[in-house]
Amino acid sequence: MSAFEHGVDDPAAVIEQAMLAIRRSQGRRTLHRRRAGGEASLAEAATFRVLDAIEAAGDAGRVMTVTGVADALGVDQPRASRLVARAVRAGLVRRGADPGDGRRSVLTLTSRGRAVLAEVHGTRRQAVEAALAGWSADDRDALARLLRAFVSSWERTTRGPAT
């Protein structure tokens, strides 16, 4: 059993194992299987990651390219190209010309892509709310605050300065 399951006292080990448990659950598409029907059923978990990456770039005021998708997902360029092409064929993503560099394409969510992503966000939020059922408001607030701080630190230390 893992440190997470054994109640080990090393916080770093517990957090690492918790992150792994979440990643495994998402890798098994647990939430995807729980969701029957709807627009989200038309896309697979890897496609959701592409949509998430494009949304995050837009929220940060940046454009997203296939190279950016590769970086965001931690995959090589050919894999990112295949994932983006699948999302384009599904009508979830649109390729457009980059006005600053005609050699690259800018990726944007279509209205259907935004609808699918909204549905996925809803499913994820329901799962989080179910996991937090019975928690006090103070504990929920503390987890949200600490998790936000942790993710911010994680991104700074694992990605380094933006290029």
Class computed from helices, strands and strand pairing: mainly alpha
The secondary-structure element order is HHHHHHEEHH
Strand order of the largest sheet: 1-2
Between the first and last Cα atoms, what is the distance in angstroms? 40 Å
- Cα-atom radius of gyration: 18 Å
Largest sheet: 2 strands, antiparallel
Output the number of helix runs.
8
Number of strands: 2
Shape by Cα distribution: globular
Helix content, binned percent: 55-70%
Mean pLDDT: 84
Strand percentage, roughly? 5-15%
Please mark out the parts with pLDDT under 50 across 5 or more consecutive residues, or reply none: none
Features:
mainly alpha, two-stranded antiparallel ribbon, 8 helices, 163 residues, single chain, 65% helix
Would you kindly provide a written description of the structure presented here, covering whatever features stand out?
The chain is mainly α and about 160 residues long. Helix content is about 65%, strand content about 10%. A two-stranded antiparallel sheet has the order 1-2. Strand 1 and strand 2 form a beta hairpin.
Layout of helices and strands:
Elements: H1 3-6, H2 11-27, H3 30-34, H4 45-59, H5 66-73, H6 77-89, E1 93-98, E2 101-109, H7 111-131, H8 137-159
Antiparallel strand pairs: 1-2
Helix pairs in contact: 4-5, 4-6, 5-6
